[in-house]
UniProtKB/TrEMBL annotation, chains A, B:
<feature type="domain" description="Amidohydrolase-related">
    <location>
        <begin position="58"/>
        <end position="404"/>
    </location>
</feature>
<dbReference type="InterPro" id="IPR011059">
    <property type="entry name" value="Metal-dep_hydrolase_composite"/>
</dbReference>
<feature type="binding site">
    <location>
        <position position="66"/>
    </location>
    <ligand>
        <name>Zn(2+)</name>
    </ligand>
</feature>
<feature type="binding site">
    <location>
        <position position="95"/>
    </location>
    <ligand>
        <name>substrate</name>
    </ligand>
</feature>
<feature type="binding site">
    <location>
        <position position="214"/>
    </location>
    <ligand>
        <name>Zn(2+)</name>
    </ligand>
</feature>
<feature type="binding site">
    <location>
        <position position="187"/>
    </location>
    <ligand>
        <name>substrate</name>
    </ligand>
</feature>
<feature type="binding site">
    <location>
        <position position="302"/>
    </location>
    <ligand>
        <name>substrate</name>
    </ligand>
</feature>
<dbReference type="GO" id="GO:0046872">
    <property type="term" value="F:metal ion binding"/>
</dbReference>
<dbReference type="Pfam" id="PF01979">
    <property type="entry name" value="Amidohydro_1"/>
</dbReference>
<dbReference type="InterPro" id="IPR032466">
    <property type="entry name" value="Metal_Hydrolase"/>
</dbReference>
<dbReference type="GO" id="GO:0050270">
    <property type="term" value="F:S-adenosylhomocysteine deaminase activity"/>
</dbReference>
<dbReference type="InterPro" id="IPR050287">
    <property type="entry name" value="MTA/SAH_deaminase"/>
</dbReference>
<keyword id="KW-0862">Zinc</keyword>
<comment type="similarity">
    <text>Belongs to the metallo-dependent hydrolases superfamily. MTA/SAH deaminase family.</text>
</comment>
<dbReference type="InterPro" id="IPR023512">
    <property type="entry name" value="Deaminase_MtaD/DadD"/>
</dbReference>
<feature type="binding site">
    <location>
        <position position="217"/>
    </location>
    <ligand>
        <name>substrate</name>
    </ligand>
</feature>
<keyword id="KW-0479">Metal-binding</keyword>
Length: 434, 434
């Protein structure tokens, strides 16, 4: 049993008993944190490794609760367009050409960016999910994966897709030393007929898995749902039984007070995607109200093509900033709340109870920021610095499941040069086919 | 006469005839760009230095048009508060204790962060401005400096402050090889009585200098102006003659249609500070309308205590994102417009006609981003990547006035270790005195 101790670090613990430890120590044994506190519990010579944490800010790894990682291949391909135009004219025609190989390299490109930027767990909803799972396995990252199914197709194709989604969820749940969990995902109420959504609900019950879906991202989509099904998306999904399973919905921008109450009642988790919602002009989610109602709100980047990066520090900062500016309330989402959304509540939103805080008994998923830089001076308030001043590039070291994945900015598990080369090659082939 | 050529680079020129050069060359002679184009104009051996620009994205240096640099000493000291509370209870009591030495180290801390992050020109409005000017001189950055005067004081103190502001503006205009220009600055309509503002207008006329001031940052301030002076800030300042001089106003969040017309009519330049306006819950400026009326809109970070960093890539991205999300128009501020606001229109907003574009005859103020990173792949659209994917930490090299100031992430002109140490020492002394 290998024992590592980190000393002299600043720790943002996400543990209410001692949220900030200014000059602390943390012990990692195998894939767990077994101690965190002010002083080393044992003499330093009794550890297998002793890491000097001076000038580092340690915090839980970031949890990105909504992504379509392989869409990194389309980063910058079609900006400044409305959601439906962007999807129908730019994304879907290119994505229709995605092979398993494209998904492999696009996912690896995103995972490389995520781990280097401090994301230690991500949710992915896409196609060719075996490739995504293999990329997760190789890279050492933690992930909650799900085949996102668009059901606008003949019944036999629908059935095949559902069977594939079921198979994937069964095959990979608990794999990669438990780093992979799975969900069932009808893509959205506007891309899946009601009876098809009900089949996903049944499958989720059968497999005892949660459901993940897009919901109420744009005003138009909400109106279309009313026009087509006579109900807004929340009532529609509730009626179809989606919330009878543990559920994570992405976006939830356009909600009424009553809908917020329904989400709270069913303990539905919301993945807030501020960057993507702004970029696609979808609007600003009612996050302060969601938080007031006790709903678990986490943060997602959405796919890299609508963001256009996977910097979770940026999402935490946007979450802290935009709701202040839009509501006029300077404490609408304080720095502490944004930090929690990006870490502990992210993990809880995907039912990981032992991830998202630096605390004895938690999984050793944590990151270290290099704080010996001008934008982290003076040393006034480390939570403020992490939320209002930091960016992905400040991340020096990343540990996931007790393993060092990024060391002083270098990813130890992935071949960066090859991934950049192959992702460029994939994009050029895809564009050439258009 | 030294001649340097950069080859094989990607160039964002901000020149409409060829906005992006994919594999280009640029020649710098002394402090000027003398050539930019697809191929080197002369055989490479005829240059004194030949820089390989492969895997670099070159663009004009960023222009930060509103800052109080020394407030970096208060970064993280009082977040998540309303503007007036934050100013009156946190900032002003600490700032009242600022000595010339504090301003020196706070300014150097900010300049270090700015140059490393790609800002080559900044506007600074503060006190102890001789220290700021000396820090500009030492560091090699370009700046437009102004003593910001709060006039809520007895007449003799008012007179002394005005005289000091005049003297500073005269002493430093055109200094540091022309890198320093100056302005006259009554701090704001709510901190300067009308007759005092008129004295600044007269001084600006006497010295033939522009005027810089805060204006219409919060709704409360606008209402107070109406209550106290019977007019909203734009009419108030117009009446006092402020717009009879070339003028740059910071914030301009709360404007009516008529006020926008008045600003357009007087060619008043607006420094949009999206990060600060969101953080202090001041609101969202009507930038799309300002742009439609042809008003020159540039970007400012505001002081580091209300941001809390000086990353101009973040301000460009916020400018591109928030107006889409808030107006529901996905092309409200396209990437190209945000890029222009952060570079060329920033320079024009402070009357620098030979800064802000990569073009023959322009000053050699430019930066290089390391684009051999995951978040810049695939290579689809470089303007998109610069606005939606980049951050300050991606900046590798910075040239200002033809001089290499930052080389592969290291600032060649400033002593980082000393600046970090001294700024921490200053903060601790200031807090100890509270």
């Amino acid at each position: 049993m290998s024992k590592t101790i980190i000393t002299n670090g600043v720790f943002l613990t996400l543990d209410e008993t001692q949220p900030v430890i200014e000059k602390g120590s943390m012990v990692i044994e195998n894939n767990q944190i077994t101690y965190i506190g002010d002083a080393p519990p044992l003499p330093l010579e009794q550890y297998d490794a002793n890491i000097d944490g001076s000038n580092k800010l340690y915090m839980p790894g970031l949890v990105n609760t909504h992504n379509h990682a392989a869409m990194s291949l389309l980063r910058g391909f079609g900006d400044d367009l409305a959601l439906q135009v962007w999807l129908q004219e730019k994304m879907w025609p290119m994505e229709a050409r995605f092979s398993a190989e494209d998904v492999r390299w696009g996912s690896l490109l995103s995972i490389l960016e995520m781990v280097k930027g401090g994301t230690t767990t991500f949710v992915d909803m896409y196609d060719h999910m075996n490739e995504v799972a293999r990329a997760v396995e190789e890279s050492g990252i933690r992930a909650c994966l799900t085949r996102g199914v668009i059901g606008l197709c003949p019944p036999d194709v629908q059935d095949a897709k559902l069977a594939e989604a079921r198979q994937f969820a069964q095959d990979w749940h608990g794999k990669a030393n438990g780093r992979i969990t799975t969900m069932m995902s009808p893509h959205a109420p506007y891309t899946c007929p009601p009876d098809y959504i009900e089949k996903f609900v049944q499958a989720a019950h059968d497999l005892q898995l949660p459901i993940h879906t897009h919901m109420s991202e744009t005003a138009r989509e909400v109106q279309d749902n009313v026009d087509q099904y006579g109900a807004r998306p929340v009532a529609h999904l509730a009626k179809l039984g989606v919330f009878s399973r543990p559920a994570l919905v992405a976006h939830a921008v356009h909600l009424t007070d009553e809908e917020i109450d329904v989400l709270a009642q069913y303990d539905v988790r919301v993945s807030h995607n501020p960057g993507s919602n702004l970029k696609l002009a979808s609007g600003v989610a009612r996050v302060p109200e969601l938080l007031r109602k006790g709903i678990k709100v986490s943060l997602g980047t959405d796919g890299p093509a609508s963001n256009n990066n996977l910097d979770m520090f940026e999402e935490m900062r946007l979450a802290a900033l935009i709701h202040k500016g839009v509501t006029g309330d300077p404490v609408a989402v304080p720095a502490e709340a944004a930090l929690r959304m990006g870490t502990l509540d992210g993990a809880r939103s995907i039912w990981l109870d032992d991830v998202g805080a630096l605390k004895s008994g938690m999984k050793a998923d944590f990151i270290a920021l290099d704080i010996d830089q001008a934008h982290f001076y003076p040393k006034t308030n480390y939570i403020s610095h992490a939320i209002y001043s930091a960016s992905a590039n400040d991340v020096a070291d990343v540990w996931i499941d007790g393993r060092l994945i990024v060391d002083n900015g270098e990813c130890l598990t992935l071949d960066q040069e090859k991934i950049l080369f192959e992702s460029q090659r994939c994009f050029e082939r895809l564009v050439g086919q258009l």
